[in-house]
Amino acid sequence: MKTLEIDIETFSSINLARAGVYKYSQSEDFEVMLFAYSINGGQVEVIDLALGDELPEEVLHALTDKKVTKWAFNANFERICLSRFLGFPTGKYLDPSSWRCSMVWSAYMGLPLSLESVGSVLGLEKQKLKEGKDLIRYFCTPCKPTKANGKRTRNFPYHDLDKWSSFKEYNKRDVETELEIQRKLANFPVPDTVWQEYHLDQEINDRGVLLDLEFIKNAIDIDDHFRGNLMSELKSITELENPNSVHQLRAWLLDQGLDTASLGKNVVSELLETADGDIAKVLILRQQIAKSSIRKYQTMENAIGSDNRARGMFQFYGANRTGRFAGRILQPQNLPRNNMPDLSEARDLVLVKDIRALDMLYDSVPEVLSELIRTSFIPKANHKLIVADFSSIERVVLAWLAGEKWVLDAYNRKEDLYTATASHMFGVPIENIDKRGPL
Fold first, then answer.
1. Which of 30, 118, 188, 363 has the highest count of CB atoms within 10 angstroms of its CB?
2. Buried b / exposed e across 92-102, counting CB within 10 Å, b at 16+?
């Protein structure tokens, strides 16, 4: 066996979109129900694990055999779920070095990131079955208990054998579609260097980052407390049932003589330049509520695994026009900056949940919590988190690509590159250039 094409169907009560596959597969009720596969591009077989079938020994062995290349569309999902299926402990996963992802291949070619869309663009003969979404909703996620369904919270195969049969066909078709994609793209292979980058990406996602769960929970509680106070004050002034409603608040402002089409961040700031009295108070309260950082902290709480690590925060080739990584779940590349001089002291107050001190020391606690988001990421015991940024990396790399050796020389001499550029452009000695001069 040289290659193994895989597609699985799973169940978990954890929301995949919100928590990510690493947390999703840690659920106690997680289950791999169907396993469709093709060996060396041959006939597709479906193993009905939910109804007692077992994987063939050669397929089971191939999952851990580094000599066998495993393929899947969004292979990270299959690899992580099958790691749990094989009994790997949290934090240990199948080695990504023998895995390839046809979604990455599609993205590399500028194609969409969904199997259905790729099949449509390529005009495949065997495209993904569109009824699959309803089947996934029926079998792969919890259902609402009703009198009609006997108050059950999950649909099993025996609840609708016809649907289950269709689900197996859907599972089979996915593998057939993935094989067709590979055949269509065979003349445009992904370079080995890109696959190496993908494997590094998988290692980074597998490792994840440690989060301070106690701090996160306290931040959520503190935010709820102050948000409640702000809402109570808003209700007291406006007498509105829900002053957080844009429609209701706009109507109240209109009654006070202020007509505004929006209550967006920039609009509220502009209105505050001329507002006074109760209108100013309401707009300030609106600003403070809008700055609430609760969602980011809640996302962290949802994504954190049983070992207090969050994983799967990056998607390789997520921006398929440029090939750049894309942030997922916590969006770690899009965190609020922290400029507080007493950041450490503020964090300590949150850690001990000293609400009174926070209220006394800071004008806006929601703003403080926003600045503290980055401090939720912590190193493991006896380690440090080192924040590193390559100085002028874009400028230096571009100079190297363009053969502009003088820029590299200036950088090596630790000269200011803006000053060095002005000197080079205008033929003026670098020591004659300063901020107050004409150059």
1. 118
2. ebbebebbbbb
